[in-house]
Design a protein that fits this description.
0% strand; rod-shaped
Length: 203
């Protein structure tokens, strides 16, 4: 009895073990013409196993590509399509580069820095004052997401000034939204979101 642990690993599982064995048999055929005819037969069987789009040229080439891949590129035949590039298929993607810029206030999020920088370009006036107030309230809300205790508004305004490289100095009489108001609003949104999820499940 042959156990799965004793068998070769399936290269493309969707075609099953029998196709893989047939390809191994094809590789072992000494005559090139016979080997090619057997390869065409295998590709036809593979096409019957994946009927969707089997008439398209792309699908036919894909089947031949899979044939070569399963054979580990050992199959020497007259194929209607050139074999895929083994080096390209086995190449590993380049590692992603991560930003090394220091970000002091992570609880505010990185995007807020871009918004603050944009605000520094605004000319002085009511429009900039309104934008600064919105940003400051957003900072306070973000702060309270990580720290449920009350926060001093002066701390938020100091953080805003620091994040803007001292280019934004809020008015001393600037009143931010009350902590309880922000927390109530967050709770309402949380309950509303969970309620909509329950309703969608009932439907």
């Amino acid at each position: 009895m042959e156990y799965n642990t004793q068998r070769n690993k399936l290269v493309i599982p969707e075609y099953g073990r029998n196709i893989q064995k047939m390809i191994e048999q094809c590789i072992a055929i000494e005559d090139r013409n016979e080997r090619t005819r057997f390869a065409y037969l295998i590709v036809n069987i593979m096409g019957q196993m994946t009927p969707k789009g089997k008439e398209s040229g792309d699908m036919k080439q894909k089947l031949w590509d899979h044939l070569f891949i399963i054979s580990d590129f050992r199959l020497d035949i007259d194929s209607p399509y050139p074999p895929p590039n083994k080096d390209v298929l086995q190449a590993r993607p380049k590692p992603l580069s991560y930003s090394e810029v220091d970000f002091k206030y992570r609880h505010y999020g990185r995007n807020i820095e871009k918004i603050i920088k944009k605000a520094t370009d605004y000319p002085e006036g009511p429009e900039k004052d309104a934008l600064v107030r919105i940003i400051a309230n957003h900072l306070k809300k973000s702060y309270l997401t990580w720290n449920r205790n009350s926060v001093d508004d002066n701390l938020i305004l100091e953080n805003l000034e620091e994040l803007s490289n001292n280019k934004i100095k809020a008015d001393e009489d600037l009143q931010l939204n009350h902590t309880n108001e922000i927390l109530r609003s967050s709770k309402k949104k949380s309950k509303s979101g969970s309620g909509s999820q329950r309703n969608s499940k009932r439907r």
